Amino acid sequence: MSSDPRIRLSGVEHTFEGRSGRVQALDRIDLTIEPGEFVSVVGASGCGKTTLLRLIAGFVHASTGTVEVDGECGVVFQRPSLYPWLSVAGNVEFGLKMRRVPRKERRETARRYLDLVGLGEFADAAPYELSGGMQQRCQIARVLATEPPTVLMDEPFGALDALTRENLQAELRRIAKERTVLFVTHSVEEAVLLSTRVLVMSPRPGKIVLDLPIETDPAQDLDTLRTSPAVLAATEKVRDHVQRRTPLRQA
User: Fold this and answer.
1) Which are the contacts of 74, defined by CB distance < 8 A and separation ≥ 6?
2) For the purposes of burial, counting CB atoms within 10 Å of the CB of 121, is it exposed (0-12), middle (13-18) or buried (19 or more)?
3) Which of 7, 11, 95, 113 meets the CB 3.0–4.6 Å disulfide criterion with 146?
4) What is the DSSP string of 69-132?
């Protein structure tokens, strides 16, 4: 991997036109994410988490400041956006097909990533035959199949039931190794469990009010981590900052 930062934001502000006038969504964001980091962003609704992700993805442009991304980004949205006329495998192959990857290679790649997310036996199924959690796993496989160096995830588990969410958390923690991940979530516990760093954003205009490194043993399973003193302490600290309205500061 490159030794350069995967993502760098310098002095980023973003303003958009709302119904009652101009609204400042982000205020003076400075952020560097290194290759291989798993960074989660939490904060109250409307604090600019999704706006931050969309800026990094290139869907919108900053009003002020610079956004630099080293390499391509794959984006996993809140809800699966699968093509209903394609099979599960066809959905995962789609990005590879657009890149003119030979048929045999893209089929092998799709099969590998479907096996990785536990959908190997559903390769020939139609998307509507899958449950919501399975559709989301298919979307994750489709993004990972193109092997982007950076994956941006916008509350990908938000609409799932608790059990499916826990299963996907474990799968994501496993398959995200050797990739850079920016993960937007409303769940403080989820952020701490999955991440190497957690960012807390203030209410609008969004600022980073906490940048907390998370040190956990990658070999430990999530059930064990949930009750570990380090995770409980980090969760309490992050939750405390989410609930406050404080000026910019670092951990």
Assistant:
1) 143, 144, 146, 148, 150, 151, 152
2) exposed
3) 95
4) ESS-EEEE-SS----TTS-HHHHHHHHHHHTT--HHHHHHHHHHHHHHTT-GGGTTS-GGGS-H
Q: Measure Cα distances from 226 to 42, 166, 233, 236 in Å.
A: 18, 11, 11, 12
Give the C-alpha separation, 41 to 119, whole Å: 28
Dump pLDDT digits (tens) for 44-53: 888 899 999 9
Provide CB contacts within 8 A for 21, sequence distance 6+: none
Rounded to two decimals, the pTM is: 0.87
DSSP 167-200: HHHHHHHHHTTTSEEEEE-S-HHHHHHH-SEEEE
With beta carbons less than 8 A apart as the criterion, state whether 188 and 157 touch.
no
Q: Position 219: which residue type?
A: A
CA distance linking residue 106 with residue 20, whole number of Å: 49
Residue 62: CB atoms within 10 Å: 20
Nearest of 33, 13, 32, 31 to residue 23 by alpha carbon: 13
CATH homologous superfamily of 1-71+184-251 equals P-loop containing nucleotide triphosphate hydrolases (3.40.50.300)
Per-residue pLDDT band at 250 (split at 50, 70, 90):
very low
Rounded Cα–Cα distance for residues 208 and 30 (Å): 8
Residue (of 64, 117, 61) closest to 89 by Cα position: 117
Q: What is the largest CA-CA distance in the chain?
A: 55
